[in-house]
Amino acid sequence: MVYANNNVDPNAPHYVSECAELLSDKVGGVVLGCTDQWFAECVNLIKHSAPVWDAEKYVDTGKWMDGWETKRHNPDHDWCIIKLGIPGVIYGFEIDTAYFTGNYPPHASIEALCDDSDPNFDILKESNNWEVVLDKSDLGSSCKKYFSCKVDKRFTHIKFRIYPDGGVARLRAYGKVVKDWTLVIPGELVDLAAIENGGLVTQVSDHFYGNKNNIIMPGRSVNMGDGWETKRRRGPGNDWLTVKLAKEGIVKRIEVDTNWFKGNFPTSCSIDAIHSTSTPDETHLQDYEWTNILPNSPLCGHRRHLFQNELINNNKPFTHIRLNIFPDGGVSRLRIHCSLPDSKNNNNNNNNNNNNTSFKTSSRQQ
Fold it and tell me: 3-class DSSP state for residue 63?
């Protein structure tokens, strides 16, 4: 029997739901090397998917486990080096020993460094620039443990140590994306909702089937489970989701992708926006006066919908957007392509809806 526990941990600290996940393979994390991976490969440690248990599956080296597991009897300890998918300031870690019961490591610690030169494993393992960001801490049997990061600075790589050996299912690092905005070419459109740029889903009416953060992940969805999906609404109203943009921007084009949602896509959607000169209370965003920038527009299943000529009231910067779906259903990705307010290309902000624009779209579907 194969099963996984996808339930949200109600006791998880605030950074799990309020910050970006910087480490998993979904956002580009890469395992560069490790001391040992006899029973289970280290790459499993950063899988975006939840750990799976298969009671009947065995492989040549022994029991198959969905995590990183090393040999027994290490006289010292095991460790691995991982490149963050998104460089940033780490606020906290989640170490999950799911299904590792008699074979989990009793302790773990984490070090980190910042090196944008893309160093390889051999260089990093000899580096003297590692800083301790998590002291040696206790782990438990088949459970999630949360730890705050003790250093408040930007990092690109982490070294994960387990004492003395054993298995860990997943490792997560939550924090704030730090992007070098000087690299953006003046006039270039940037997806300010994208998690890799610092966008963050702050509120959602419901995410019963698909996690809210899937909607701003890189690339197109790989299946229906890789999107945001709500349960069937049996009463009045509609579902919605709010995104805090990476920074204020002038919305030029919007993409709503229903990839893989074929019998459960919303019938239509609209988008509203606000601009906040100070940090708003993210839990009370619905109380703000929102500006509609995309009128209610029909959607189709398993399509990319591109909106540009349809946009209204979008000649000024916004900091948050709200996607409204009617009445419910699934959306795999949301892209909010913006120009930056200080961009040299913003002289014609009031001509967003001009048919002579370089993007002549009318709710294109691809």
Answer: strand
